[in-house]
Write a structure and sequence with these properties.
- The complex is a heterodimer of chains A (437) and B (374).
- Chain A has 437 residues and is α/β, with parallel strands linked by helices.
- Chain A has 16 helices and 10 strands.
- In chain A, the strands form 3 sheets. A 4-stranded parallel beta sheet of chain A has the order 2-1-3-4, sandwiched between helices. Chain A has a 4-stranded parallel beta sheet with strand order 6-5-9-10, with helices on both faces. A two-stranded antiparallel ribbon of chain A has the order 7-8.
- Chain A starts with 13 loop residues before the first helix and ends in a 7-residue tail after the last helix.
- With 374 residues, chain B is of the alpha/beta class.
- In chain B, helix 4 runs parallel beside helix 5 and helix 7 packs parallel to helix 9.
- The termini of chain B are far apart.
- Classes of the chains: A alpha/beta (437), B alpha/beta (374).
């Protein structure tokens, strides 16, 4: 056993996280066997709303599904080739192409649960990126005309939020509920909606609280592990099982690690963050960083995709408080849900890169970083939006930046040896040497 | 007959600078045709659309990741090179992510007195889009008023609406003439006419349109080649249009934001004026980035093809332009399978590879002509 600077150990709830994720994909595949409903949509969809259709409603969120496909690079390539054979451009969102490819090939990324790609009964999406509603518009074409409802949430940055902006979102939500009743033939249960909204508050709050604990030196979590944990929030942020897992298992687990000085990277000597989705077929990049005692403490992406944040009393950045409000009816629940989501950090840069740069620089300072690795991600125009300006701003703030180009979901567009070499050079520029193991 | 439009298009910067000297007014650069020019005309501001130069450039790379469309990078390059140094302000109405980056990088690096990002509904098929945009237009109008230092009155707004509506009406009348078996104008002339209206004072443009309309119905040019439609991403590639028409074909209609989509419908000034403007921009023929959940553009394109008796369609796809890429397959299938119109798909950059495209267009025209090669 190699002696390290800090003690390390596996997360206590690691296996539970894996089980929850597996069960999610199994439940979706087998929903019809139990008379349940299946829907497909984005990880940012207001999933608390379809929850009001009953407790047997199961979703397949497209981005984490696309990432699961990407992790299996052979299957991902099959999916890409299938979409390209249909004429779709290869520069489009690679998650989207993974999803479409699955539909075209009629193959599920989890064959242990289904021999075929399980078609949704309806599509429930939100829209802030150009690819959001259009993703499911094309998917609907490919899957034989499945009904689609999408809610436009691109009403401007949270700091400029006004009543008319919230009203626009909330009115679309109300329309969405009527639409859900029509397409499913079910009566809507507002109590289930309210319960789901409270769950979502907890999920988003506790995920941020967990990420906040990573300010500690040594960091109790590394980003590669965080990917397996934040994913639950992207699968179903309004589910009780997600909220309970974050609040009652993961958060205490990480608190305990902090208390006992347990490190994610035993020889931590360098702290970085990344940006945007990683190249999923090449997560070994993070293991390579560990050879330098370098821990990626997360990113605005892992922190802010699901986590919500606000200024704390001491002026630092921390979890947004769970609203202390009593929701008594549908409109109150929808309004709270809209307001809550519109503060999402990862929705702000859609209007100006400065908003994202400010948050990233804040992370760099408060999480005590030595440098930043920016993934110029060809696979996602939404989260790569403004990334070149982010690079300039972060450098100006005094943090060294290593950009690297790749694609989260299309392994044909990632050059592993070149990226490793670039890491070597970057580490050398930071004065960080490899550990001899 | 169309020389004035061509001159305005080619000498847009000189025109705007002289306009400023002549009128003492402000010039604002806008990045997308969803910007409500009516409000700007009401404020006596000259809106000038920021377009690219179709030249290779090396200045935008540090600011916009290369996977974003060459058009947005070309637009930013114009600002970074100082070609729009006469602008007093910039604005954008929310549409695609790509052009948004040209706006935000311009905002960060090229100082102007006024910069306004106008949130604009993407879900234009929602009944709530019009009231939402109306409120946003109130904020936009207020910001403009603060900038120019005086209120925009109802009369001002009516005047602004009438200037822009008249421009739309006149261009539509000219487009109607393209339905004739032997249209009295070429596709190139039509393109320079519409694009020039995006960068000149529309009152002057209207006078020129009226003068052209007097003479145009009597004009007789040899314009009897294959009747083509052009559609797709932002496109002011006059060189490409000229090349195709030099091969004997004729563009008789388009679906471009530099063409018919720019002027298709008018503002109905009989109701609340801001609401009327809002209605026009929500109900206009949509950019594909806003055309969901239904693809309403398909019916529009098919109708255009029928109305203008189109024999073939060229689908121009700006590299990396995601919204159009997401519609291309549906458009091709609809045109080819539903109405039997052959299509040619061309992916282009801001610098058009004329030689390669010429070969492909020649082959396409041979298919339409059903020529016996041997």
């Amino acid at each position: 056993m190699v002696e390290t600077k800090y003690p390390t150990e596996a997360l206590k709830c690691w296996n539970k996280a894996k089980e929850l994720r597996e069960k999610y994909y199994e439940d979706y595949a087998k929903a019809h066997e139990k008379g349940g409903i299946r829907w497909a949509g984005g990880a940012w969809s207001f999933d608390a709303i379809p929850a009001g259709l009953g407790e047997d409603v199961y979703s397949l969120t497209g981005e984490p599904y696309g990432a699961s496909v990407a992790f299996n690079d052979k299957f991902a390539q099959e999916c890409h080739e299938a979409t390209e054979a249909k004429g779709y451009a290869r520069d489009l969102c690679s998650y989207m192409r993974n999803y479409w490819g699955s539909a075209i090939l009629n193959k599920y990324a989890f064959p242990q649960f289904s021999d075929e790609f399980p078609k949704p009964d309806f599509m429930w999406q939100d829209h802030i990126c150009c690819s959001h509603a259009k993703w499911y518009q094309v998917a609907s074409d490919l899957e034989g005309g499945i009904p689609l409802f999408s809610i436009d949430v691109s009403v401007g940055p949270y700091e400029q939020l006004t009543d008319h902006k919230i009203n626009y979102v909330v009115k679309q939500m109300h329309d969405g509920i009527k639409w859900l009743e029509e397409v499913t033939g079910r009566d809507y249960d507002d109590e289930l909606l309210i319960k789901a909204v409270y769950n979502e508050f907890r999920t988003c709050h506790y995920w941020s609280a967990i990420c906040t604990l990573n300010k500690t030196i040594p960091a109790p979590l590394d980003e590669k592990s965080m990917y397996s944990l934040y994913v639950l929030g992207t699968l179903k942020k309004s589910a009780q099982w997600t909220a309970d897992f974050y609040e009652k298992e993961l958060y205490p687990d990480i608190q305990d690690r902090v208390k006992r000085g347990i490190a994610a990277v035993g020889n931590e000597q360098c702290r970085v963050m990344t940006d945007t989705q990683p190249p999923w077929a090449f997560l070994r990049v993070f293991r390579y960083l560990e050879q330098y005692g370098c821990v990626s403490i997360g990113s605005l992406y892992t922190f802010g995709l699901i986590g919500l944040w606000e200024d704390q009393e001491d002026g630092t950045w921390g979890p947004r408080s769970i609203p202390n409000i009593e929701l008594t009816n549908r409109d109150e629940a929808l309004r709270a849900l809209a307001e809550w989501n519109l503060s999402k950090p990862e929705w702000q840069h859609f209007y100006h890169p400065k908003l994202k740069s400010d948050m990233m620089i804040r992370i760099a300072r408060e999480w005590k970083l030595n440098g930043v690795l920016l993934h110029f991600n060809r696979g996602c125009e939404g989260l790569s939006l403004g990334i070149a300006e982010n690079r300039l701003a972060i450098q100006k703030a005094g943090f060294p930046v290593m950009p690297f180009e790749g694609n989260m979901g299309d392994e044909r567009e990632f050059d592993l040896p070149r990226t490793m070499k670039r890491i070597d050079t970057f580490m050398e520029s930071l004065g960080v040497e490899k550990f001899k193991i | 007959m169309f020389e004035q439009f061509e001159s305005w298009y080619k000498n847009r910067h000189e025109y705007a600078k002289k306009w400023k000297e002549r009128t003492g007014g402000k010039v604002i650069g806008y990045f997308c045709t969803y910007v409500p020019e009516e409000i700007l005309y009401a404020a006596n501001i000259l809106p000038v659309r920021i377009l690219g130069s179709h030249e290779p450039q090396d200045v935008s790379e540090p600011h916009i990741f290369a996977m974003f469309c060459p058009f947005c990078r070309d637009c930013l390059a114009q600002g970074l090179k100082g070609r729009f140094d006469y602008l007093d302000g910039i604005t954008i109405a929310q549409s695609c992510l790509h052009i948004r980056q040209a706006f935000t990088s311009w905002d960060l690096h090229i100082p102007t007195d006024f910069s306004y990002y106008l949130p604009h509904p993407m879900n234009v098929q929602s009944p709530h889009a019009i009231p939402y945009l109306t409120e946003e237009l109130k904020l936009f109008k207020k910001a403009i008023e603060e900038w120019i230092g005086h209120p925009i009155t109802e009369e001002d707004l009516k005047r602004g609406i009438e200037i822009v509506n008249k421009n739309r009406r006149l261009m539509k009348e000219i487009y109607e003439l393209r339905k004739k078996p032997n249209p009295p104008l070429t596709g190139l002339e039509a393109m320079t006419m519409v694009v020039s209206s995006q960068m000149t004072d529309k009152e002057e443009h209207n006078k020129e349109l009226e003068a052209v309309l007097q003479k145009l119905p009597l004009r007789n040019i040899d314009n009897s080649g294959e009747r083509l439609m052009i559609l797709g991403s932002e496109d002011d590639d006059t060189e490409f249009i000229a090349m195709v028409e030099n091969l004997g074909a004729r563009f008789v209609i388009d679906d471009h934001c530099t063409g018919s989509r720019y002027f298709d419908n008018e503002v109905n000034a009989n109701v609340d004026l801001l609401e009327a403007i809002s209605e026009r921009y929500v109900k206009r023929i949509p950019c594909p980035s806003k055309d969901w959940p239904q693809r309403t553009r398909l019916d529009y394109i098919v109708q255009l093809a029928k109305d203008y008796d189109v024999q073939g369609a060229i689908v121009m796809q700006m590299k990396f332009c995601d919204p159009h890429e997401l519609d291309t397959i549906a458009i091709k299938e609809t045109l080819e399978n539903d109405v039997g119109i052959p299509t040619l798909f061309l992916e282009f950059d801001v610098t058009v590879p004329i030689g390669q495209f010429k070969t492909r267009v020649e082959a396409f025209l041979e298919i339409i002509r059903e020529e016996d090669l041997f």
